[in-house]
Fold this sequence. Notes:
The complex is a heterodimer.
Chain A lengths: L2 E4 L2 E3 L21 E3 L1 H14 L4 E7 L4 H9 L4 E6 L7 H14 L4 E5 L10 H9 L3 E11 L2 E8 L2 E8 L2 E5 L11 H9 L3 E3 L8 E7 L8 E4 L5 H11 L4
Parallel strand pairs in A: 1-4, 1-6, 4-5, 5-11, 6-10, 7-10
Antiparallel strand pairs in A: 2-3, 7-8, 8-9
Chain B lengths: L1 E5 L2 E2 L2 E2 L1 H12 L3 E8 L14 E6 L8 H14 L4 E5 L2 H13 L3 E6 L1 E5 L2 E8 L4 E7 L4 E5 L14 E6 L7 E7 L12 E5 L10 H10 L2 E4 L1 H5 L20 E5 L5 H7 L4 E6 L12 E4 L2 H15 L1
Parallel strand pairs in B: 1-4, 1-6, 4-5, 5-12, 6-11, 7-11, 14-15, 14-16, 16-17, 17-18
Antiparallel strand pairs in B: 2-3, 8-9, 9-10
Helix pairs in contact in B: 2-3, 4-7
Amino acid sequence: MNIAVCIKQVPDTETKVKISDDKKSIAEGDINFILNPYDEFGVEEALKLADGGEVTIISLGPDRVTSAIRSALAMGAHKAIHIKSDAVPADPGATADALVAVLKEGNYDLIFTGKQAIDDDHTQMASLLGEKLGIPAVNVVVKLEVSGGKVRAEREIEGAHEVVECPTPCVISAQRGLNEPRYASLKGIMAAKKIQIEAKDVNPGPNQLQIVEYNYPPQKSAGKIVGDSADAVPELIRLLNEEAKVI
Amino acid sequence: MKALVFAEQRDGKIKKTAFENVSLVKKLGMDFECAVIGDAVDAIELGKYGAAKVVHYKSAKLANYTPDGYAAVLADAMAKQGADVLVMGATSMGKDLGPRVAAKLNASMATDCTHIEMDGGDLKIVRPMYAGKVLATIKLTSAKKVVTVRPNVYAAEENPASAAVEEVASDVDFKTVVAEIVAGAKGKLDVTEADIVVSGGRGLKGPENWHLIEDLAAQLGAANGASRAAVDAGWRPHDEQVGQTGKTVSPSLYVAVGISGAIQHLAGMSSSKYIVAINKDPEAPIFKVADYGIVADLFEVVPRMIEELKNRN
Lengths: 247, 313
Ligand SMILES: Cc1cc2nc3c(=O)[nH]c(=O)nc-3n(C[C@H](O)[C@H](O)[C@H](O)COP(=O)(O)OP(=O)(O)OC[C@H]3O[C@@H](n4cnc5c(N)ncnc54)[C@H](O)[C@@H]3O)c2cc1C
Ligand SMILES: Nc1ncnc2c1ncn2[C@@H]1O[C@H](COP(=O)(O)O)[C@@H](O)[C@H]1O
């Protein structure tokens, strides 16, 4: 099978995000960028399923995203396309249009995304790509079987799993639990360096999402230490009942 | 601006987030109607929260969720019911369905919104990013718009009206079928849906002690959550993980037991209305966000809490 994996480069989860002075952007200065953690599950699953076929990594973003692309190649992916863009558009629909233009040029049986990009948290891409390509999309997948052009995927919903069936080609958004992503071997890292990343200029779609401003969430002030032993329990329960009124 | 509130149902029962969203659009003073998709659905319930007009797109084929089937019906419903903005819960279904409908309507979409207000004739929307480390205020400039609202953020306020339910027979083709739903542990409440969440971390020392979390949760009518350390150790299933790479929750009460409060954990729960921390380390970062804390051994505190609550209940 030929498989595409859409990946995004994101700040690592330790990052203390800084808003720039104009409140309209995030300051990139000290950020350590990584491959979006959910996308690793997509890469891993693609490598497991490819079975002699090719795995192509696709990412839209500024030049720095090539390092995330290299991480995916080092895991064993075969090809990569970098859609060059000064920044990732605020509107996921605009990114989706550019990805769709590139995905249409390939003949992919499966397309993976991560469940969610941990920076913008849009959680939209798989469904957007599915709709724009006119194919099924299954989100938040924790178990996947593909054979004979048929997909059986288990996805997480509230308190249960939904077992979804659809034909290929389709889009799958990967959730933690789908697999254990492999670590890139030294050999893999060296091999990845030799792969030419194909750079493409594709205009993203219209941006219909306007950032008014970014703010930090209201700081919670540290509350009350009710006590330093189990004897504080009755007072805690009284506070929850009478002051907070939550029980 | 007219809203269409998509009232999600499972097993014919309308979900609470639909009632919350009816309350929200009423509060915003918006003109609105509701749309329900499914077979036999208790759609009249929406009236209790002030919905006057509900269109029930009815079909046996649509009893269970199917993304492409539901998306086709909803895109038509937006036109038929003459709405500009589609409002739904940021649930598994809403997050799956919303972008599909948005793509059909050339609409832009805002996911998991925590605050919406009218600004002139426009919607001003706040949605958390970076798992809540940043709040983005945004506007959708597309003609049609789709928003999903985080469950539990807006209260479902009873506001009885008599809902007129119009049934429309629906027939659509779709390729994606939900073959079965594998339920988790019986009657298990999901952390994203619960009003109270009790989470345990590495401080519990092992799965054999988890009955403490379960019993405390049972006394409070709460859902069970876990830190990633507890999930990674294999003590708890991944669907209980709270945090940046787990679930984001906003319950009215979050009880963190033996959890240090790493930045990734805080990201998933710091928007809870009240936070209780039980940890023996007074320096644990969880105390920086906790409204109430007890600095002591959880193995002494939690049994005492269970006992006290039992006596009250
Ligand atoms: C990419 C990435 C993503 C991540 N995503 C998440 C996420 O989504 N969610 C998440 O939770 N974490 C996440 N983490 C992990 C996070 O960094 C922490 O490692 C994790 O949250 C720690 O879990 P913990 O608080 O249970 O364990 P610890 O940090 O080990 O804390 C245990 C706490 O228990 C207390 N304790 C011990 N014994 C007792 C006792 N007898 N009585 C009372 N208190 C006691 C200790 O004082 C300590 O504070 C992520 C990490 C990375 C790198
Ligand atoms: N700029 C991008 N380039 C390539 N893939 C992306 C991009 N943005 C998002 N994705 C993919 O879509 C998934 C979900 O992202 P989102 O919908 O933004 O939360 C990510 O995990 C990636 O797989």
